[in-house]
Design a protein that fits this description.
With 246 residues, this protein is of the alpha+beta class. It has 5 helices and 13 strands. It binds zinc ion.
């Protein structure tokens, strides 16, 4: 009788472990590191098998041309979250990215320290990703590099409200956030087709990365790094993709 009870409780522990295993834990170090993402779940196979993965080194420009890209971003009440991998602000409908005549609605912005994209091997200390989706669910992301310099006022609002640990989206009472404050004065971009830089690494993402960095203070960059840690995926092969630059 006693041994049956032991067996039963051992079985329930095993079941609990299996259930926990349904949500594979990916991260940026150890067992869950980017090199292992493809093995953590059958849903993550593209992370290893995909041929159009992000981020890449943007030095590999093989087409010249000015991509016509414009933003129409609006100030809205600040809502922040920490998903355990990044700090993110969500946006209400209404802000848009227009690229190649297509309209994508701004959904959220999140951050990576160091930057994920590189230019001639150089990575910046911080990169913002503005994630947009069109009516069919196609994604367009706008990457903005930050270099160390003057503090950024909008970033200060976000850092002050950023949850230190994993937390669902929370409205920040009385704070208006203007995403335009995280954009360079004129928007010229590298453009290429890539992927999400986190599992499941889905491809078909219209990438735009601004060719001019803006500044954040050393303290702001450090504050985000303290919360997020190292959350940049290593550079991926460009393969024979079209990378458009000016
Ligand atoms: Zn990102």
């Amino acid at each position: 009788m006693h041994s049956l009870l032991v067996m039963a409780s051992a079985a329930s522990v095993a079941l609990a472990a299996a259930a926990a295993g349904n949500a594979p834990h990916w991260s940026y170090e150890g067992e869950g590191a980017p090199d292992h993402w493809m093995k953590l779940s059958s849903d993550f196979v593209t992370c290893g098998a995909g041929k159009m993965q992000s981020p890449i080194d943007l030095q590999a420009v093989n087409a010249r041309g000015a991509t016509v890209v414009a933003t129409n971003y609006q100030t809205s009440p600040l809502t922040v979250l920490n998903n355990g991998h990044t700090v993110q602000a969500n946006f209400a409908a209404g802000s848009k990215l227009i690229s190649g005549g297509r309209e994508f609605g701004l959904v959220q912005v999140h951050f990576h320290t160091l930057s994920e994209h590189a230019v001639s091997g150089k990575r910046y200390p911080l990169e913002a990703h503005f994630v947009h989706a069109d009516s069919a669910g196609k994604l367009a992301v706008l990457g903005i590099f930050f270099e160390e310099g003057a503090a950024n006022a909008e970033l200060s609002k976000l850092i002050a409200a950023a949850p230190k640990h994993k937390q669902d989206a929370t409205p920040v009472a009385g704070v208006q956030f203007d995403p335009n404050g995280l954009l360079p004065p004129s928007l010229n971009v590298y453009r290429y087709m890539g992927s999400l830089t986190t599992p499941p690494c889905t491809e078909g993402v219209n990438w735009h990365v601004a060719d001019k960095a803006i500044t954040a203070s050393k303290e702001q960059i450090a504050a985000l790094h303290v919360i997020m840690g190292d959350n940049a995926r290593p550079l991926q092969p460009a393969n024979n993709r079209l990378i458009v630059g000016r």
